[in-house]
Amino acid sequence: MNISAAAEGFSAEPKTLVESAYRALRRDIIEGTLAPGEKLRVEHLKDNYGVGAGTLREALSLLIADALVVSQGQRGFRVSPVSLEDFGDITRTRVMLECEALRQSIAIGDDAWEANLVGAFHRLAKAEEKRIGSDAREEWEERNRIFHEVLIAACPSRWLKHFLSILYYQAERYRRLSLYLQPIPRDIHAEHEALLQAAIKRDADQAAALLAEHILMTFRSIEAIPSEELNRKPAA
Amino acid sequence: MNISAAAEGFSAEPKTLVESAYRALRRDIIEGTLAPGEKLRVEHLKDNYGVGAGTLREALSLLIADALVVSQGQRGFRVSPVSLEDFGDITRTRVMLECEALRQSIAIGDDAWEANLVGAFHRLAKAEEKRIGSDAREEWEERNRIFHEVLIAACPSRWLKHFLSILYYQAERYRRLSLYLQPIPRDIHAEHEALLQAAIKRDADQAAALLAEHILMTFRSIEAIPSEELNRKPAA
DNA sequence: TAATTTAAAAATCTCGAGAAAACGTATTGA
DNA sequence: TCAATACGTTTTCTCGAGATTTTTAAATTA
């Protein structure tokens, strides 16, 4: 998640309660269980997540790094609010950074990278087959994230990848918040496949164009939803 | 610093001890008082900064967001290590993002923005005159940061500005770490002035080129320093 | 001597309780 | 009726002390 995380292998098993709470909270925010703008009362939440108040505060502090939580001095923590404007910003910034990272990745990536990419695409495709059930959905989300991650894995810029990781989770949250409104209508599988082919052909221009369209598409589909619907889960 | 900070007016007076400790620690890391890679023992530091252990841990957690501190589960906190490679990455990423932000700012900025820019440049120039003393140096650093901030202030992307804020502090740390090795030889004033003129003339291409050169110059001057010198302050 | 084991020391991580601030409600007055 | 004030409740913020884990150092053995 954060840059130290990527560096230190943070993504292994959680070793401390702080990290467990951090992950549980992050999942709940991205899934929408904790609604945008909702107040995060430490005294209540510490029981839900089975940790002490100090520990929970620390986990919440870490989530500020991911911009999933905001805090105002002496007024506690809140889930970051959402807005169409913000999602637009996230989308445009992501297009800009991710296309650049993809170009670098395509330019530098070796055979091992290609192999990883094909593997990630295959695992994603497998997850697309079994469409039913909440677990299957979680699995698809995870593999989709990894596919995007592997696409830019050969990009040498740790900072670019760090920022993109933050933006990806942000975008995932928006995607999920709007999901109960609209089932996935697009042929995402075809988009991913075209992306894979372009990457392997080392056609950076085409790959970047496909990626940009891929990312923008999600935004457009959500943008089309009437704003009243989006604000149904109130910002507390 | 973090995106909530920008949003919530975090930059006013510190309202909690956590925030005071956060700022003091951030300053000490950027200035180099706390050396790269140095272990940050909570039990020791809590006395230095006059806060409890839990409070200090929370402040350190916030610094992870800025990538000035890293943590390994069960093995405490450390000041983020430095490397020439990392500084190169920071520089290139910053060039990419800041040029884009500047273009947008120039395209959108109105008269008020221009006025702010002229004002920021003027304050910076004033600070350049009185070159002596540690306070004068601090003042110059602050005004230099604000000048760069105002340059891109009209850019509508909060995320771009958020990432740039992080990168700016990172770059400032590198600049200061190498400062005792080399006094500022370049005519930075002239660079800033040219930048200002290009911005006001709304010449986005020229402004972006000047900005890129401006940022890259600092990297080159540090890159030229033999690596033994840079590693003089060991990474613990 | 070098490697392994053991034990002491230090540091991290965690929790619960107390002070300060913010919030909500009821009361008062115009 | 509305605004302002005062009070009580809730919540945040903060600290110190105890349980695990890591680190350091010494002792033992091959």
Describe it.
2 copies of one chain form a homodimer. With 236 residues, chain A is mostly helical. Chain A has 2 domains: 3-79, Arc Repressor Mutant, subunit A, CATH 1.10.10.10; 84-230, Four Helix Bundle (Hemerythrin (Met), subunit A) (Up-down Bundle), CATH 1.20.120. Chain A has helices at residues 3-8, 17-31, 42-48, 53-65, 84-108, 111-129, 134-151, 158-177, 188-200, 204-223, 227-230, and strands at residues 39-40, 69-71, 77-79. In chain A, β2 and β3 (77-79) form a beta hairpin. The longest helix of chain A has 25 residues, at 84-108. The two termini of chain A are 27 Å apart. Residues 1-11 and 232-236 of chain A have low confidence and may be disordered. Chains A and B meet through α1, α4, β2, α5 and α8 of A and α1, α4, β2, α5 and α8 of B.
Which characteristics define this entry?
homodimer, 236 residues, mainly alpha, Arc Repressor Mutant, subunit A, Four Helix Bundle (Hemerythrin (Met), subunit A), 2 domains, 3-stranded antiparallel sheet, 11 helices, 3 strands, 68% helix, disordered C terminus, DNA-binding
What is the CATH H-level superfamily of the largest domain in chain A? GntR ligand-binding domain-like
Sheet with the most strands, sense and barrel status of chain A: 3 strands, antiparallel
Sheet/helix structural class of chain A? mainly alpha
Q: What does the oligomeric state look like here?
A: homodimer
The level 1 CATH classification of the largest domain in chain A is Mainly Alpha
Count of discrete structural domains of chain A: 2
Strand content of chain A: under 5%
**CATH topology (fold) name of the largest domain in chain A:** Four Helix Bundle (Hemerythrin (Met), subunit A)
